[in-house]
Amino acid sequence: MTEQERRLLDAVSLDAPWELVETFSRMPRWRPEDVNKGADAIADRLRRLGVPVTMHEPEIYLSIPLSASVEAGGVTHRAKPPSMSLSVPEGRRAKLVYLPANQKALRSYSRDVQELFGGTIASEDEARAKVAGCIVVTEGFGNPALSSLVEEWGAVGLIACNPGVDIHWGTCTTIWGTPDLDDLPRKPKIPVVAVNKATGEALMALAREGGEATIRTEMLEGFFPQKIPVVDIPGDETDYVLLHGHYDSWDVGVGDNATGDATMLEIARVLWANRGQLRRGVRIAWWPGHSTGRYAGSTWFADAFALDLDAHCVAQVNCDSPGCRWASSFHATTTMSETARLVEAAIKDIVPDAVFKTKRPNQAGDYSFNNIGISSFYMLSSTMPDDLRKEKNYYDVSGCGGNIAWHTENDQLEIADKDNLLRDIRIYLLSVLRLTQPELLPFDWVAVAEEFAATVDRYAKAAADHADLSPAKEATAAFHAAVARLQGDAAAGRLPAARANALSKAMARILVPINFTRTPRFAHDPAFTAPPLPGLAVAAELPRARGAMLGFAKTQLLRGQNRYVAAMRDATRLVG
Questions:
Q1: Residue 103 CB neighbours (<10 A)
Q2: Of 417, 436, 455, which residue is a domain's last?
Q3: What is the domain extent for residue 263?
Q4: Structural domains in the chain (count)
């Protein structure tokens, strides 16, 4: 750790961040007018700390849950509709059909039938025959992948049975951010609700008896002006790091994400006070529309500032759910391969005995910058160790450091932990500094080449004799050799740092989209799981394909391999 890093880490205080956490613990931030009050609270504190802030106010598309219920067997059950559920205040009645879910996939964003319902549904044709015209009841959360699947199968409603006594808010649309005209056909056309475990068990039992239910949902939906506070901290160079997180929440949302908002507030204070010492700048942004707009705030920013981000952003760092109680582990730390070494070193420099393991970024969070091609790390922050979670009999959730208060009214002040928050602020600050300060950007593109080679090899083995992936293997090997030479030359000083950094940024614009997206640059992929190198992923499905479907799948693979090989050739030519 450098002397400058130690000095800035020592400057971190909990005074301003903890005061914001306490304020937000009394301030719900999900209705549009309350969200804007949250933005004003952030901006007021920044100004009091002497940090200039720009307030953008775009109109973004939101869906705010107002009420929901399920009537069945003469009983009215409490429910919550996820954002973007179809509003049917008059009610929709139909026969209940129970689809037992794979317990290991309760939080899965996959649309793979076997992963979601392994052993209970053999094919999508069987699913359509079973659920058409019915209301589906299943375990899990009313997430986009599940909701879109049952809608495609002809279901007229979905009831997601949460695994505990509480009901979790969420969202059920695959559309990322405010829809454009191409997105609109994917807007949910069925009502979706979540219920707790006890209600779910009653509804499953009724479904087995052939019973019916009525779903009622009421939503407030449309375009709303929402505020986005942004702090720009200049550096000597025009390039910058984007540090960001959402400030809207479900209810008061302390662990998700008041603690993240406080983390960014303190980093803004420390970096602004030391702005004259930064090589690269830092842009810090607080998003609305994360919960009720499916990342609509960050998506608007990615759209409105796309060309600037393309030209100057070297990395995006997402800040969600740091500083929560019992969150002492880093065994599920989100990072792309090129930033994994940086992330591990930063965490272990703050927590030398940290349990650390990386995970591939989900198609979730505010990762609204993949299609531009920006290297990324962090999403959820520290979390509860698995052993402790099992000891507490907690199920797996997507935030709050593993606390099952996530997305419920229970995400209150006690979910935050001062010591963990101080630790996580320092981790985020150190990680950002190690992007801003080195003369040479610390990205490991050889690790990406190795990841790609392993992925291609895995798909080739899965496809067996059904496909020839040798063009992809050869292109990957050529890129690996070229980028290894580039990194060696840069590290040895044989290549000017400015040139190496420009090449690194240009490589990200090629390699991130090919590994995380299916749609063109500057568009936004649907909010369900993108497998590694998604254009090649169909290779693993070929042995299961039959009849005409095999021919269709092979056609898709041919096109996907063409895209991949062309990208590898572009990257290889780029680095020489």
A1: 11
A2: 436
A3: 39-58+226-436
A4: 3
258 and 287 belong to one structural domain: yes
Number of neighbouring beta carbons within 10 Å of residue 383: 25
Q: Which amino acid would we find at residue 287?
A: W
Angle between helices 15-24 and 32-48 (to 10 degrees): 160
Task: Count helices and strands (H / E) in the chain.
Answer: 17, 15
CATH of the domain at 168: 3.50.30.30
Prior bond of 362 cis (ω within 30°): no
Whether residue 23 lies inside any domain: the answer is no
Alpha helices in 241-376, H assignment, sequence order: 259-273, 296-304, 306-312, 340-350
Instruction: Specify the DSSP class assigned to residue 171.
Output: B
The rounded distance, in Å, linking the Cα atoms of 566 and 3 is 44
pTM listed for this prediction:
0.96
Q: At what angle do helices 418-436 and 340-350 cross, to 10 degrees?
A: 140
User: Residues 213, 230: one domain?
Assistant: no
458: left (phi over 0), alpha (psi -120 to 50) or beta: alpha
Give the amino acid at 190.
I
135 and 263 within one domain: no
Radius of gyration of the chain (CA): 24
Same domain, 512 and 363: no
The CATH number of the domain holding residue 347 is 3.40.630.10
pLDDT, tens digit only, all 576 positions of the chain:
999 999 999 999 999 999 999 999 999 999 999 999 999 999 999 999 999 999 999 999 999 999 999 999 999 999 999 999 999 999 999 999 999 887 665 566 666 776 777 667 767 788 888 899 999 999 998 888 889 999 999 999 999 999 999 999 999 999 999 999 999 999 999 999 999 999 999 999 999 999 999 999 999 999 999 999 999 999 999 999 999 999 999 999 999 999 999 999 999 999 999 999 999 999 999 999 999 999 999 999 999 999 999 999 999 999 999 999 999 999 999 999 999 999 999 999 999 999 999 999 999 999 999 999 999 999 999 999 999 999 999 999 999 999 999 999 999 999 999 999 999 999 999 999 999 999 999 999 999 999 999 999 999 999 999 999 999 999 999 999 999 999 999 999 999 999 999 999 999 999 999 999 999 999 999 998 889 999 999 999 999 898 999 999 999 999 999 999 999 999 999 998
Residue 87 in any domain: the answer is yes
Query: What residues form DSSP beta bridges with 243?
Result: 284, 317
Tokens 């026969």, residue located: 95
Residue at 103 is within a domain: yes
Residue 294 sits in the same domain as residue 431: yes
CA 397, 399, 403, 408 torsion: positive or negative? negative
Instruction: With respect to residue 12, please indicate whether it lies within any of the assigned structural domains.
Output: no
| CA angle (196, 200, 205) in 5-degree steps | 160
Contact (CB, 8 A) for 333 and 393: no
As a dihedral over the C-alpha atoms of residue 415, residue 22, residue 274, residue 330, rounded to 10 degrees, the angle is 0
